[in-house]
Amino acid sequence: MISITSSDTSLRSKAQSLAAQWGFKFSKTPPQEAFFLQVTPARLQLIQSDRHSPGPIYIDFSSGSIAHRRLFGGGKGQTIAKAVGLNKHPSPLILDATAGMGKDAFIFASLGAEVILMERSPISAVLLTDALHRAALDESISEIIQRMSFIFSDARNLDSQKLIREPDVIYLDPMFPHRKKSALVKKEMLAFQNLIGDDNDSNELLSTCLKRARKRVVVKRPIKASYLNEQKPTYSLNMKKHRFDIYIK
Fold first, then answer.
1. Spatial contact of 40 and 63, defined as CB atoms under 8 Å apart
2. Could you give the maximum distance between any two Cα atoms of the chain, in Å?
């Protein structure tokens, strides 16, 4: 359990409300903790308080690298779009069962898919919820956000989850342990991973997702990682740092 706070007295009631909703501790002053959540007039953000901090961590679908990726990423010709079949099916329902910071899910929605984001970490979930709310107010991307919905749940319980309909594609990008703090791993992601932890139970997800997906399950893995649950995919699409393992139903 981490704390949530705000240095803006007018936003403390919002911080208290979020604490009660998501099970965080409320603090009137900046907590003396390695990580804490902070409500600001612009957004909700995660703060790492030690000297190795990469700066505030937050999700913003309208600017930065994700905006650049939406505008110049290659459309349906990019590898991730081919992996989930967007080059063949113009508007599938994709369940991103390990949504994390929602970047891939936003790309799917920007390319015309309807996307359900599922995330079990309350920290990721509250940051995602805040980002989706802010993005819905941005006219430049509000149409994309209308194709995105969020479920706070553990994907291992997918069998009992009621969805709007059965997803055509289920996408998995479990948090993978980084053996080295190399330049390839962004400081932001390392901080996030240190707080939330690795998805060491991700092997359990594959069989569950294969039952629910209508057409395919796609698993994003580091290029040299073993197959999830040691189960060989139908085929893989490789990139420089990672690959997409595709399991066709």
1. no
2. 55
User: Which residues is 54 bridged to in the sheet?
Assistant: none
pLDDT band, residue 73 (cuts 50/70/90): confident
The pLDDT of residue 118 is above 80? yes
The DSSP-derived string for 86-148 is: TTT-SS-EEEETT-TT-HHHHHHHHTT-EEEEEE--HHHHHHHHHHHHHHHT-TTTHHHHTTE
Q: What's the pTM? A: 0.90
Beta-strand ranges (E) seen in 175-228 are 216-222
Measured CA to CA, the distance from residue 52 to residue 31 in angstroms comes to 17
Q: Which helix (H) or strand (E) holds 150?
A: strand 148-152
Domains of the chain (ranges; CATH) run 3-48 (3.40.1630), 64-248 (3.40.50.150)
Could you give the CA distance from residue 24 to residue 207 in angstroms, rounded to a whole number?
32
What's the confidence (pLDDT) of residue 183? 45
pLDDT digits (tens, 9 = 90+) for 154-189: 998 998 888 988 999 999 998 766 544 444 446 566
The answer to whether 109 and 147 have CB atoms below 8 angstroms apart is: yes
Please give the DSSP secondary-structure letter assigned to residue 187. Answer: H
The per-residue pLDDT for range 28-56, each reduced to its tens digit, is 988 888 899 999 999 999 998 877 777 88
